Every structure is written in structure tokens, then in C-alpha cells.
Amino acid sequence: MAVPPVTLRANTDPSFVGVAALTARHAAQIADFEAWAAAGQWSQFHHGHYDWWAYPIMRSSAYGQAYTVYEAEIAQLNADPQFVERHRRGIQLGALAWGWDVHDRRSGRCARAGTSVDPLAGTPVQDGALGAGIRL
User: Fold this and answer.
1) Which of 6, 40, 93, 106 meets the CB 3.0–4.6 Å disulfide criterion with 33?
2) Three-state SS string across the chain, please?
3) pTM for this structure?
């Protein structure tokens, strides 16, 4: 008995920028993250508006469906090792901007200051970007 092919849901909205454009915008944003981190300009992370292409998710946004990804796009992005590496780095740098070190297993360790802090007393995540990044 033949198994029917699985059809992944894809973003077919005419406003969708496409995986190639999303990947390029994502790469440029992660380069900005790297520059901000290297310069110690952590506040840039809190003032920038980049969630849509830095941490694409399966929901529409202020940009409508332009940067929304579904299973088909996620499969394409996950098949691109450079994207995956940049995406992980983007999550790491976003977390560092809020004082978290994703590689430090000790709860409450403030990565930038190098001191223990109450994790709930840190900079609040107002836009949900970090959570969005982790979902991809």
C-alpha cells in the first residue's frame, strides 16, 4: 500500500517576500546584531523592530503575511545550514541583550555583567522576539 505524499502548508499569500528574500533580510539583521554586540550597543536590540525577519513565525504581523512562515518555508530554512547557524546566533545575541547566556546552564547568570541576577528583574521582553526565535 502506497503512502500518500505529505503536503506541507506553505505561505501562498501574494505579499509573502519569499524564502530567498527572507533569508537575505535575516542575514543582514544578524550582521546588525553582531555589530551592536561588538560595540556593546545592547540598547539597539530594545529599540529596533526586526522580529518579523530575525525570528520568523507562523503568524501574521504588522507586515501581514510578508514574513510569515509555515511548515514548507520552515523546512526550507532548516535545510539551509547557514540560515540555521545564523538563526541560532541571532537567538544567542537577542538573549544576551536581555542579560541571558543561552549556553550557561546556571540559572540567573547575567551574561553581560557576569554577575548573578534575579532573572525576573532583568530587562522585560516586550515584543516576544526571543520566544518567537525559539519556536522556529
Assistant:
1) 93
2) CCCCCCCCCCCCCCCCCCHHHHHHHHHHHHHHHHHHHHCCCCHHHHHCCCHHHHCCCCCCECCECCCCCCHHHHHHHHCCHHHHHHHHHHHHHHHHHCCECCCCCCCCEECCCCCECCHHHCCCCCCCHHHHHHHC
3) 0.74
